[in-house]
Amino acid sequence: MNFLKIKEEELKPLILLFSIFFCIVSTSITGSSVRDAFFLINFDKSYLPVMYILIALSMAWIISIYKKLTSDKDPISIITASNFIFLIPILYLKFNLNGVFIPIFYIWIEIITVLSILQFWMLAADVFNPRQAKRLFTLIGAGGSFSGIGIGYIIKPYVTQFGPNNLLYLTIFFIFLTVYLVRKIDPFIKNNSIKNTNFDTSNNKSFFNLSPYIKYIAMMVASSAVISKIVDYQFKIMASNTFTNQDELISFFGTFYIFTGLATLIMQFFFTNFVLRYFGILLGLMILPTMLTISSASFLFTGTLTAIYLAKFSDQVFKFSINNSIQEILWLPIKVRVKKITKPLIDGTLKSSIEGLAGFFIFILTFYSFIPESKVYMLSIIILLGAIFWIYNNFRIKKGYVNSLIESIEDRDLFLDDVNFNINDSEIVKTIDIALKSKNEFKQLFALDLLWKQNLNPWADTIKTLFKSKNYKIRRAVLELTWKKAEILSNKMLIEIIKSDDEIRAFAIACIGDRRVNDLDDILKPYLVSDSILLMASSSASILKYNPQHKKALSIVNKILDNSDHEKIIILLGFLKELGYLISDDQFIYFFQKGSRELKIECLEILEKSPRLSLVLSITSSINKTFSLGTSSVNFLTYSVAGFNTILAGVSSCSIIPSFIIAIRSASFKASSKS
Q1: Whether the Cβ atoms of residue 19 and residue 143 lie closer than 8 Å to each other
Q2: Alpha-carbon dihedral of residues 246, 355, 224, 293, nearest 10 degrees?
Q3: Which ranges of the chain have pLDDT less than 70?
Q4: CA–CA separation, 546 vs 548, rounded Å?
Q5: What is residue 268's DSSP assignment?
Q6: pLDDT at residue number 296
Q7: pLDDT of residue 545
Q8: How far apart (Å, rounded) are the C-alpha atoms in residues 147 and 138?
Q9: What is the pLDDT of residue 660?
Q10: Could you give the CA distance from residue 267 to residue 274 in angstroms, rounded to a whole number?
């Protein structure tokens, strides 16, 4: 699975989450197909806009109750209980799908879809950390696309064989399967702490007090919500007028899901990253409104199902691929505190309210025959006006986005680590590149820090030029950033740095040693007799990594370890992280008993990589002694506990005396209380 960048320990939870999302989308597709067909054929379809209004009102009420009931529950229990609650009305409605129960069923399926997807992504965030999410969430999301393709394909033969009403048996099956798979994912949840999902809205600002940039985002969300509802209404009315039989209508929806699932899959894996990387967010933002403009104009002039099919297809495919990705990117430059308050307000409350208002507006126009059902294509005039405003607003968003990015970097307030997608936007690349090239040391260092968990290729040329900077901190930061990135900092470049850069030479030597480059004797031997302890230590360690029997290097290491100068020992240990075998148990015990806090920390860092059961007692004794020294040693104690846990994990097959563990945890608790 290397080509997909999936680690072995990630494979099982990835497959489980992929399967769970497949089941959730399958539940939605099968339920929605029955819902739409029964409502449009067996109920008065002029009330379809009323459904939009009732759904908006119901979701506001349901979400409010949901937050109160789930604020102190774990995700597995929430999803399990929710699915059984979803199931009970479906079992009843399966045998009573007529009259007033049809609109009730319509609303219930929408509630199931919204809550299930919300719960799923919260669960996924508990299984994978943000860095893993960048690599894996696109693969997990593909489960929904595969569901569209697979379930869409089987709907027609299933309905032909068993009837449209019995399609709900598949809905029920996928609900049960979701519960089963969710129970299987429990061991992989890394953070089982109970999360409070209630947002503190006490500091909510009114719309008019928001920054212009956030207002532009809100206007985009509102425009999208209105247009999406009108397109959905037109699509369903035209489909029901064309296919007047339930079986035919459900089969039509199944075919639609096949094509949208396949197209969304292609967009997710091949098109979205390409557009963002090479053309930026503006072009990405323009795709959906432009396609809606073209297809709606076509529907206005032709009034055909094909034209509105294209509009609905565009809305479904581009909204859930490139548009959703860009909307997440747009929130990057906004301060976390502001985002926490305003994003749920815009993506949730505002969007739902606008969808309800759109339904009310459509109902007034159609019910009072301002636009009769036979002329439903006239609603495309509203879509065209809305799309034109949407496109105009996108230019304002682009300008606000760039300005906010620059401002965030200048204020050192841009955080990319918690983003659950790959950063491929050309504007982010360009803005960070400008910061790297600036003459402001703090701005450059902040930009470099942003890149620690990113793919460095977009900034490769700029990073290489920074090695020529006159600023030691910049050169050192770049070296650390590219330590294991031979494609950016080649071994040839490293050798040139060793020869020419006195200030970072020792660290460049350590870097080339970590890369296990052989036959460096001619380059490194002169530094074995240097007056600098840094050069002697780094050169000895690097040589021993490819030649463990090198006599001169071993002699230097042993001489420093036996030295009474703890400062020199600390410097040496900094280069021996992967060579812990060179330090004897007696030397470790001496360092823990007589060494400074800094020396003990260096020892723990080495023991994290090469644990030794024989040293557990010494470490425990050292921690307890350190605690008795007072709060000045809390930092060492905190690190000690973390390091000790790793050491215990490394010797877990051995018998550990319980009192050692009790002593560690007791000291940890006391230290955290004091700090």
Answers
A1: yes
A2: 50
A3: 1-5, 130-131, 134, 191-208, 409-425, 618, 620-675
A4: 6
A5: I
A6: 96
A7: 87
A8: 15
A9: 43
A10: 10
Do the Cβ atoms of 76 and 186 come closer than 8 Å?
Answer: yes
- Taken in order 188, 191, 196, 202, the sign of the CA dihedral is negative
Whether residue 235 contacts residue 311, with contact meaning beta carbons closer than 8 Å, is answered with yes
Dist. CA 636–CA 624, nearest whole Å: 11
Cα 365 off chain centre by:
42
Query: Which CATH class, in words, describes the domain spanning 209-245+275-417?
Result: mainly alpha
pLDDT at residue 4, rounded to an integer: 60
pLDDT computed for residue 396 by the predictor: 93
pLDDT reported for residue 166: 92
Q: Quick one: how far is CA 321 from the chain centroid?
A: 15
630 in the Ramachandran plot: left (φ > 0), alpha (ψ -120 to 50) or beta?
left
Query: What is the per-residue pLDDT across 413-427, written as a single tens digit (0 to 9) for each?
Result: 666 555 544 555 677
Q: Please tell me the chain's helix, strand, coil percentages from 3-state DSSP, rounded to the nearest 5.
A: 80, 0, 20
- Distance from the Cα of residue 73 to its chain's centroid: 23
Do 490-582 and 1-188 fall under one CATH topology? Answer: no
d(CA 526, CA 514): 19
Q: What is the pLDDT of residue 645?
A: 56
CA–CA dist 530, 533 (Å, integer): 7
The pLDDT score that the predictor gives to residue 410 is 66
What is the per-residue DSSP string for 348-406?
IIIHHHHHHHHHHHHHHHHHTTSS-GGGGGGGHHHHHHHHHHHHHHHHHHHHHHHHHHH
Q: Which helix (H) or strand (E) holds 344?
A: helix 336-344
- Helix runs in 485-615, H state only: 491-500, 505-514, 521-524, 533-546, 551-561, 566-573, 585-594, 597-609
CA–CA gap between residue 642 and residue 127 (Å, rounded): 22
| Concatenated DSSP letters of 573-597 | HTT-TT-GGGS-HHHHHHHHHHS-H
Global pTM reads: 0.72
Helix (H) or strand (E) holding 299: helix 280-302
What are the b/e assignments for 316-343, b being 16+ CB within 10 Å?
bbbbbbbbebbbebbbbbbeeeeeebbb
Q: Single out the residue of 432, 329, 418, 340 nearest to residue 134, CA to CA.
A: 418
What is the pLDDT at residue 105? 96
Gap between the Cα atoms of 458 and 431, Å rounded: 12
Judge: domain 490-582, CATH 1.10.10. no
Question: Could you tell me the residue ranges of all domains in the chain?
Answer: 1-188, 209-245+275-417, 425-483, 490-582, 605-675
Q: At which residue do the structure tokens 């072009």 appear?
A: 283
What does the pLDDT read at residue 643?
A: 53
* Chain mean position to CA 206: 29
pLDDT number for residue 415:
62
Task: Give the model's pLDDT for residue 5.
Answer: 67
**What is the rounded CA–CA span in Å between residue 553 and residue 336?**
50
Provide the pLDDT for residue 201: 44
Instruction: Please write down the long-range contacts of 238-241, taking CB distance under 8 Å and 24 or more positions apart.
Output: 238/305, 238/308, 238/376, 239/40, 239/305, 240/40, 240/41, 240/45, 241/373
Q: Is the Cβ–Cβ distance between 452 and 481 less than 8 Å?
A: yes
Whether 106 and 53 have beta carbons less than 8 Å apart is answered as no
**Domain 1-188: CATH class, spelled out:** mainly alpha
Cα separation of 675 and 665, whole Å?
Answer: 15
